Amino acid sequence: MSKPFDLIVIGAGPGGYIAAIRAAQLGMNVACIDEWKTADGKPAPGGTCTNVGCIPSKALLQSSENYEHAAKHFGEHGITVSGLKMDVAKMIGRKDAVVKQNNDGILYLFKKNKVTYFNGRGSFVKAVDGGYEIAVAGDKPETLTAKQIIVATGSSARALPGVPFDEEHILSNDGALRIGAVPKKLGLIGSGVIGLEMGSVWRRLGAEVTVLEALPTFLGAVDEQIAKEAKKAFDKQGLKIELGVKVGEVKSGKKGVSVAYTNAKGEAQTLEVDKLIVSIGRVPHTVGLNAEAMGLKLGERGDIVVDDDCKTNLPGVWAVGDVVRGPMLAHKAEEEGVAVAERIAGQHGHVDFNLVPWVIYTSPEIAWVGKTEQQLKQAGVKYKAGTFPFMANGRARALGDTTGMVKFLADVATDEILGVHMVGPMASELIAEACVAMAFRASSEDIARICHAHPSLSESTKEAALAVDKRTLNF
């Protein structure tokens, strides 16, 4: 006997669990299915983000940053540290505890909002009575039905062709978060978000880190001026980044991994490392969904094809997050999840993709929203730019972290903010002001005229806005 619901959400990552909660708030009887489990077999909702992505990586970044501060920067504050050492097992244990807190938090939110949770793999069975029958394969198999379905099954790490992940020597983001000891030499293929963040963690703890990037430019999606500033900081830290490489044969053995590649000059090279993290992007996860049998349309990347409202080609079936087009970001998935729940309820959910912020949680942090300078040039948009360096900010000096800058791009005619880009301390937090400003179509003059607390890092945002009109006060 199947269990009837108004809505079934397949996947409990940021897009799925948020969609389920919002739909329940709107009065729907909601089921959410997710197959993640902890090592001891307990339910672990939260998807890649909570279990092997955003949350655990930030925990390791924080631990490694604390270690580096103690090793290299405490002396500046008159603090003497002797016998410093890193207990990697304890660091990993703390990371696991943080993950569990988030898992448990989602289970609590499901209970609070009366969302029925099923631990197992959800898949389509057949269309029934204007809706769909969904099977839950797991320790307790179930059959559910609903007229509305949201697919939020996320994405999986992309492997190098012919080089599968063994999670011991050749690692995805999952294995990179479970390294048991600091490797002497660590290699990364791909200088994207995951590569730079994981490279930073183990570089801080003493690993010799080499990043191999196929593209000729560093962080091509980032504003060029900001990317160059970040590259200078990473070079200074000792993170070795080689651009324009072509990776050849990868061999894994008991002693480590050997990577043959050709550098930008066309010279044959070999990189010998203890561990190799492959960070060359992610692919939409539709395995086991039974999409083809249902006639659910998939794109060339394996993504579920949706329209602007996240509707699929099947009536009553929606898809959000990494499994559809657009940036693979947890907060983008959340916004889509909320919007779809509201659309199902007859409301007008909305997501503005131009206002989705991007963040790389390295040190310095990199964050941006809106258009880059190169995008504006390519589109022929007339703009004016203003920058302000953190080295001229009093709070940054007091923190001892003056790397980087804030950059504003505004329309020449209207002064409307078109993009804001940052590299420096707490950029992940500072970017929110830019998102709010751009959501209200503010001008750079609006930000320049708003009083910001002194001393604060946010003053750099105000000063960069002033710089658009060439009237900075502190630089």
TrEMBL record:
UniProt KW Cytoplasm keyword: yes
GO biological process, one term: 2-oxoglutarate metabolic process
Binding residues annotated for NAD(+), in chain numbering: 190-197, 213, 281
Cofactor details (free text): Binds 1 FAD per subunit.
Superkingdom per UniProt: Bacteria
GO terms assigned for molecular function: dihydrolipoyl dehydrogenase (NADH) activity; flavin adenine dinucleotide binding
One cellular component (GO) term of this entry: cytoplasm
Keywords of the record: Cytoplasm, FAD, Flavoprotein, NAD, Nucleotide-binding, Oxidoreductase, Redox-active center
Gene3D superfamilies referenced in this protein's UniProt entry, alphabetically: 3.30.390.30, FAD/NAD(P)-binding domain (3.50.50.60)
Record-annotated active site: 454
Bridged cysteine pairs (disulfide): 49-54
E.C. number(s) listed in UniProt: 1.8.1.4
Enzyme class: oxidoreductase
Annotated coiled-coil segments of the chain: none
Cofactors (names): FAD
Binding site for FAD: 58, 122, 153-155, 322, 328-331
UniProt-annotated location(s): Cytoplasm
Limits of the FAD/NAD(P)-binding domain: 5-337
Limits of the Pyridine nucleotide-disulphide oxidoreductase dimerisation domain: 356-465
Catalytic activity from the UniProt record: N(6)-[(R)-dihydrolipoyl]-L-lysyl-[protein] + NAD(+) = N(6)-[(R)-lipoyl]-L-lysyl-[protein] + NADH + H(+)
Family the entry assigns: Belongs to the class-I pyridine nucleotide-disulfide oxidoreductase family.
Miscellaneous field: The active site is a redox-active disulfide bond.
Name assigned to this protein: Dihydrolipoyl dehydrogenase
